[in-house]
Automatic annotation (TrEMBL):
One of its GO terms (biological process) is apoptotic DNA fragmentation. It comes from Equus caballus (Horse). GO terms for molecular function: deoxyribonuclease II activity. Belongs to the DNase II family. GO terms for cellular component: extracellular region; lysosome. Its EC number is 3.1.22.1. The gene is DNASE2B. It is found in: Lysosome. Residues 1-23 form the signal peptide. This is Deoxyribonuclease-2-beta.
Length: 357
């Protein structure tokens, strides 16, 4: 091999290597813009008293590199927040018209609309990926995020109540399982781009993108997932034909643990705590931020649950559905983990919960 040919070959290999390294950078991001395996945010509700300086944009933050909740350095509506940093990758991919990158954004409350779609699941989230890896952001914020053309913003309607979200970085080999879970959740997709290079492995997401799905949707579907750095998760997805409370009828019994659930407690729309099955489900009534600070579930739009303290199986789940009679008729899901640092962080938030009658 001549020196000139060797030089050209090495240059091409270097370009390919750089392309692969660039492709692996899609990931959940912290406030410094650094890649993390997963993160969880808990946006705090806006305080109602006039003396409070809180804006309804502050949040608690936890990720794979920290051991407990910490207060955010940024406000949720800034591009330096964890959501702003993470979604920046979407805007860069969209702006470059990259045919190797796909995205799918869904919400039953579409941005710039006053209506909520009951035809689709009570689901809110965003996926961005390439053939190496990507992330799945599951959250509770209506009308979020804006379409990629408009860049990052946080809706004013998301300030008053508490909101939650989890972002997990996944290798591409996990997306086929996620594809099946999304079919059951039946998301209201309002922005998507899935190039044909993904269509062989991912059957349902392109159909959801074009709203042309002809696949038969099962009543429920379960998947095991693993993050890019090896954290184990499980995901429960129920369709609107599974006419029951996902917590009591399925999750608590499968996880084999009593669950404390925190969901939006709208007046006359909540289910009471349920002790009728082997594993019970209790409604959390108040969230503790510090010794002096707490808020009621009536001000919390978040959806999460944890195993009752003292039980053997310690699970934490974050997802889409409230404990409400009306939510039994909606599709949605929850992602769960036995990560002990996550469990301890959420356990510390429970002020008190409702016992069974």
């Amino acid at each position: 091999m001549t020196a000139s040919l060797l030089s050209t070959t090495l240059a091409l290999l270097l370009l390919r290597l750089l392309g692969v390294l660039e492709a692996t950078t899609i990931s959940c991001r912290n406030e410094e813009g650094e890649a993390v395996d997963w993160f969880i945010f808990y946006k705090l509700p806006k305080r109602q008293d006039k003396e409070s300086r809180e804006t309804g944009l502050e949040y608690l933050y936890l990720d794979s590199t920290t051991r407990s909740w910490r207060r955010s350095k940024q406000l949720m509506n800034t591009t330096k927040s964890v959501l702003g940093r993470t979604l920046q990758q979407l805007y860069e991919a969209y702006g470059s018209k990259n045919n190797n990158t796909a995205h799918l954004i869904y919400n039953d409350g579409v941005p710039n609309s006053v209506n909520y779609s009951r035809k689709y699941g009570h689901t809110k989230g965003l996926l961005l990926w390439n053939r190496v890896q990507g992330f799945w952001l599951i959250h509770s914020i209506p009308r979020f995020p804006p379409i990629p053309e408009e860049g990052y913003d946080y809706p004013p309607t998301g300030r008053r109540n508490g909101q939650i979200g989890i972002c997990v970085t996944f290798k591409y080999n996990q997306y086929e399982a996620i594809d099946s879970q999304l079919l059951v959740c039946n998301p209201n997709v309002y922005s998507c781009s899935i190039p044909t290079i993904f269509h062989q492995e991912l059957v349902h997401m392109p159909q959801l993108c074009t709203r042309s799905s002809a696949s038969e949707i099962p009543g429920q579907h379960f998947a095991t997932l693993q993050s890019a750095q090896g954290q184990n998760f499980v995901h429960f997805a129920k369709s609107d034909s599974f006419l029951d409370d996902i917590f009591a009828a399925w999750m608590a019994q499968w996880l084999k643990t009593h669950l404390l659930t925190e969901t939006w407690q709208r007046k006359r729309q909540e289910l009471p705590s349920n002790c009728s099955l082997p594993y019970h489900v209790y409604n959390i009534k108040a969230i503790k931020i510090s010794r002096q600070s707490y808020f009621s579930s009536h001000l919390d739009h978040a959806k999460w649950c944890i195993s009752q303290k003292g039980t053997k199986n310690r699970w934490t789940c974050i997802g889409d559905l409230n404990r409400s009679p009306y939510q039994a008729f909606r599709s949605g899901g929850f992602i769960c983990t036995q990560n002990q640092l996550i469990y301890q962080a959420f356990q510390g938030l429970v002020l008190y919960y409702e016992k069974c009658n």
